[in-house]
């Protein structure tokens, strides 16, 4: 197109004019449309030709509600005591729904990240969205800068957002201490997970009970009556039972035997720690012997079962330290003449398979739920028993109770009858 020509008009002194020399003027009542004189090559826009209004953005999803009095009856008072003792403005935690602490506070949440705060009066919850990171949004909402208590494992980026807003972060184990005792709703969730653990143990023991013997090995995996039953095939059977019952094995299933090929007359230990859909874990371990003839493993088995009974009586009487309960386990086992290696483990169970109370000096408080686990070496084999024990609430005179505990018999058939 040549120098001064344009399509339907010219430019004069910086103004755009039409073919008849008229200058379009902006209609103050329009949004950028032009009003033009007759004969113009530019057609005026009519109402029916206006741009459609943009669709409104969807309403943001509501922030998840924290669980407080319904599930965690003493959580707020525990946090309030910690805030007063440390002269802190609030307790803050952040993370995704995979974090046990976030799952504890926001059991219905999914995804994330989320940031949660309690300032002694109210709960504040923010999720990450297009407007910013959850911790940054939460920091804008908190009334006062100053010291805030956080778990030691708060994500680094969340800590930076809080510090950039003038908050001084102080590490605290107050959330872990609160989680160490379980409310009734939490016990129900652990019990559901424990039922899936029992289903897995049953499925594995059924395989052992149905197996036949060929060339000194157990054969038959439920689908093929001639295939050698190995530790791996047994693990798969156990996990299948857990999944069928609605649980998740979580990679925690262990089969312990003298060799990979399972044999009659040798102890076979099965340990599981699945979780349910709500994230709470269970835990069980049983040892069985196919076609056993008694002997050494029978005496060791009696020692293990008596030691667990002693632990139950001990924790029915009142709080004890983890070290004291583990020491009682070992002492009872050695009282039966066991001199080989003994492993004992007592720890809490909940949103993690192993959680507080955990350290030797930590007290197992009323209302705690703990896994009692003991293993004794018998030659090249291991005998292992583990169960979940729920301790009575304070001022509750009922004894501690085993949670969904199948028989501890060494005989596969007897265990399955429980």
Automatic annotation (TrEMBL):
Bias-annotated ranges (Basic and acidic residues): 13-22
InterPro entries linked: Creatinase/aminopeptidase-like, Pept_M24
Pfam families, per database record: Peptidase_M24
Biased composition (Acidic residues): 49-68
Region (Disordered): 1-78, 394-418
Residue span(s) of domain Peptidase M24: 256-377
Name under which the protein is recorded: Peptidase M24 domain-containing protein
Superkingdom, taxonomy of origin: Archaea
């Amino acid at each position: 197109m040549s120098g001064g020509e344009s399509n339907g008009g010219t430019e004069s002194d910086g103004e755009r004019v039409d073919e008849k020399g008229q200058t379009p003027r902006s209609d103050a009542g329009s949004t950028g449309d032009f009003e033009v004189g007759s004969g113009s090559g530019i057609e005026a826009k009519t109402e029916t030709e206006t741009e459609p209004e943009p669709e409104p953005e969807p309403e943001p999803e509501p922030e998840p509600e924290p669980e407080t009095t319904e599930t965690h009856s003493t959580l707020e008072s525990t946090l309030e005591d910690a805030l007063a003792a440390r002269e802190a403005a609030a307790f803050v935690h952040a993370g995704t729904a995979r974090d046990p602490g976030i799952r504890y506070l926001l059991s219905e949440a999914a995804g994330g990240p989320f940031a949660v705060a309690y300032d002694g009066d109210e709960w504040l919850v923010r999720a990450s969205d297009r407007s910013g990171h959850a911790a940054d949004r939460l920091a804008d909402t908190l009334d006062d800068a100053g010291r805030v208590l956080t778990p030691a494992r708060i994500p680094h980026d969340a800590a930076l957002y809080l510090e950039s807003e003038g908050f001084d972060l102080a590490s605290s184990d107050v959330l872990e201490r609160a989680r160490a005792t379980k409310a009734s709703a939490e016990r129900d969730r652990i019990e559901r997970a424990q039922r899936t653990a029992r289903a897995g143990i049953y499925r594995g023991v059924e395989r052992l009970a149905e197996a036949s013997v060929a060339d000194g090995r157990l054969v038959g995996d439920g689908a093929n009556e001639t295939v050698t039953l190995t530790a791996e095939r047994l693990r798969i059977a156990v996990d299948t039972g857990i999944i069928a019952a609605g649980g998740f094995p979580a990679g925690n299933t262990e089969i312990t035997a003298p060799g990979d090929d399972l044999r009659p007359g040798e102890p076979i230990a099965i340990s599981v720690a699945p979780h349910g859909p709500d994230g709470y874990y269970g835990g069980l371990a049983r040892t069985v012997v196919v076609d056993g003839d008694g002997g050494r493993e029978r005496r060791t088995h009696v020692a293990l079962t008596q030691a667990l009974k002693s632990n139950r009586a001990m924790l029915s009487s009142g709080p004890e330290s983890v070290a004291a309960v583990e020491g009682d386990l070992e002492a009872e086992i050695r009282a039966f003449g066991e001199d080989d290696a003994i492993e004992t483990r007592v720890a809490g169970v909940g949103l993690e398979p192993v959680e507080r109370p955990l350290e030797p000096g930590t007290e197992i408080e009323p209302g705690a739920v703990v896994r009692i686990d003991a293993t004794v070496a018998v030659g090249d084999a291991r005998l292992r028993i583990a169960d979940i024990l729920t301790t009575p609430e304070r001022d509750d005179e009922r004894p501690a109770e085993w949670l969904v505990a199948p028989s501890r018999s060494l005989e596969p058939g007897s265990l399955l009858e429980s």
